[in-house]
Amino acid sequence: MATGNLGSLHVDLTSLKELTTVKTGHKRSSSDFTRNNNMQSTLFNFVTWLLVFLLLNACCSQVPKCNNCCNSYKEINEPRRSVKSVWKRGQTPLCDRRILKGWYRFTSFNGTAKMPQTSVVDYQCGTHNPIWLRDGHPTKYNENVARAACVSSFGNSCRYSITINVIRCLGNYYVYFLKPPPFCASAYCAGFGVPCPYGKEGEYPDCYDPPAQFSRDSLGLPEITYVPLELSEGAEVDDDDVPVSLTCKGALLNGIGQWKNVTYLIEWFAEGKNLTTEQICDVQQGNTHTRPCPNEAQIVSKLHGLKYKIGQWINSTALDINLYTNLGNCDLQVYPITITPTIPVRKTILGLPELTFYTPKEALIVNGCQVKLEQGTKPVQILLKANCQQKGQVSTGLKPIVPQITYQNSAFWNHQISLPTIWVNIRDSTAIENCESSGDPHYYTLPNLKRNSFDFMGHGDFRLYKNSERYFEVQTRQWTCNGGVTCNCGVALRDHNDVIEFNCCNDLMKRDETTPIRVKIRSNKCLSPGISIKKSQPGVTSAKYQAGLIMRITMTM
After folding, report:
1. Which residue of 13, 131, 280, 495 shows the fewest CB atoms closer than 10 Å?
2. What is the pLDDT of residue 241?
């Protein structure tokens, strides 16, 4: 390193695979080109896609087979599809974009609903772009006919058309072979009656608010006991064959046992499977009980011994987890781990329980160390990958990832629930390399490129390193430091969308030993988890990334 090189930066990159020194010029921002190209590409793709849809619809339609479709249809019971249902701002419009091709029957309004044969206008039928039947219904029974269904859009009652099939069935109802429309929000019209107001259920004028789930905080913890078996004197019992009935009791809190409009759903689960479901205080929707139900301080449900097998675990302490995976140090592969509750998870006023994972330093959970469970027994997934540790810092062999449940102020979901440990096998299989730029400036490249150093005394901004596989890039800035000699005065690091700048340069791009190293976060958002910046001593700063890359910046005097 040259002497008298005040204010220069020593840049040392660890765990890199390539080195480039390419002068960058002043060009229009690549993001401008990307934005324009994306807009043009999106518009072109939309037009092309729509044309392809119309061509396929018009030219390549085949007559769908019925195959007893008058009895094996799918039902659509949606009164909002009526021509008398008008979409209003704030309502969620109906959309059939995700409907699967097949035979359907509209069963609203007591099964009398059918598609309108006269034109409809925008915002009718509970959607933005309603679809109606232009060519009318068939008059003969069991006749499979093709009809044009018009999409009303932008004031044109038949801006687009979709070829569907219609059959008149015995019983004087129709089944339709429906296809998904090309965009949202567009839906098929059906029916001419008056539907209940938006957000209500029932049949007009007998409309009511839909049942609402309320917090389980008004229910006590369930207690499961067995029902003692009553035997006659002298009778012998085979322990393997005798069915043992179980009783589940749950306290009713906050006075809800005196309510008249609550239905209690009791579900028995064993090893992640539903054994039986019982409803207590069930009442027809829209009605209430004449007396408080159950009018007691607790609810009781029984499980007959024939509903389960001896040896099954019926408890609330288990999660079904994929327990083992294999990680190589610095490996890019991501391993999904699925976690499935074996009893239903219910939401309370405190929200849903979360899982926190304690990992060894060699492993990294990509989607964060906390995962929120979903309602019911829906599985959740974490994504596991290897961290990238330096030589000598990797501890190989089996390592535990310990999950722990966190649910504030819950007597049911708490730390006492023992969750299975996830085991990972750590392999030290990836070589770690170093490259360096120091002084005025001397470059020491990766060993697989060149063993000896070389000098490059450019003035301006240069790309020092780029790894397209890991979306990582390093650029350096060189200023004049001693006559015709240049030195590093700044470095910018980009990892995906995270950009960090270390800089002691000035506007004149000439050495100034009084300028300290300034650290700036150039990203619009906060840095991603796993990125750390550390100042170990005056003039020495380092940045560490998830991929295991470590950048050390040393200011030499």
Report:
1. 280
2. 53
Q: 137 to each of 50, 75, 144, 157, 237, how far by Cα in Å?
A: 27, 19, 10, 18, 69
Q: Give the strands of the sheet with 397-406, arranged side by side.
A: 324-328, 422-427, 397-406, 354-358, 370-372
pLDDT, residue 413, reads: 64
d(CA 487, CA 355): 50
Q: Please, which residues bridge with residue 252 across strands? A: 219
How much is the pLDDT for 103? 96
Given this model, what pLDDT does residue 391 score? 60
Amino acid found at 556: T
Measured in degrees and rounded to the nearest 5, phi and psi for residue 285 equal -60, 135
In this structure, the number of other CB atoms found within 10 A of the CB of residue 237 comes to 9
Q: Give the pLDDT of residue 212.
A: 72
| Calpha distance 296→50 (Å, rounded) | 62
Q: What is the pLDDT, as a whole number, of residue 322?
A: 41
**Residue of 465, 456, 475 whose CA lies nearest to 435:** 465
What is the distance, to the nearest Å, from the Cα of residue 44 to the centroid of all Cα atoms in its chain?
29
Q: What angle do CA 67, 131, 121 make, to 5 degrees?
A: 160
Residue 439: per-residue pLDDT: 74
Question: Do the Cβ atoms of 310 and 270 come closer than 8 Å?
Answer: no
What's the rounded Cα separation, in Å, for the pair 96 and 179?
Answer: 8
Kindly report, residue by residue over 443-453, the tens digit of the pLDDT: 887 765 555 67
Among 373, 321, 332, CA closest to 351: 373
Cα 212 → chain centroid: 25
Phi and psi based region of residue 463 (left: phi greater than 0; alpha: psi -120 to 50; beta: remaining): beta
Q: How far apart are CA 195 and CA 218, in angstroms?
A: 35
CA distance 418 to 172: 60
Q: How many residues make up the chain in this entry?
A: 557
Measured in degrees and rounded to the nearest 5, phi and psi for residue 259 equal -75, 160
Q: Which 8-state DSSP code applies to residue 523?
A: S
What is the C-alpha separation between 549 and 401, in angstroms, rounded? 23
DSSP 148-161: EEEEEETTEEEEEE
Q: What pLDDT is recorded for position 420?
A: 77
Cβ proximity of 181 and 175 under 8 Å: no
Counting as low any pLDDT under 70, the low residues of the chain are 1-62, 213-216, 229-243, 271-272, 286, 309-332, 348-349, 388-394, 407-418, 428-432, 447-452, 469, 529-530, 536-539, 544-549, 556-557
Q: Which of 58, 74, 69, 62 minimizes the C-alpha distance to 148?
A: 58
- pLDDT of amino acid 472: 82
Rounded-to-integer distance, Cα 543 and Cα 472, Å: 13
pTM for the structure as a whole: 0.42
Rounded to 5, what percent of the chain is helix, strand, coil?
10, 40, 50
Whether 465 contacts 435, CB under 8 Å = yes
Query: Residues 510, 515, 516, 519: is their CA dihedral positive or negative?
Result: negative
Burial 483-513 (b: 16+ CB within 10 A, else e): eebbbbbbbbbbbeebbbbbbbbeeeeebee
- DSSP three-state, residue 550: strand
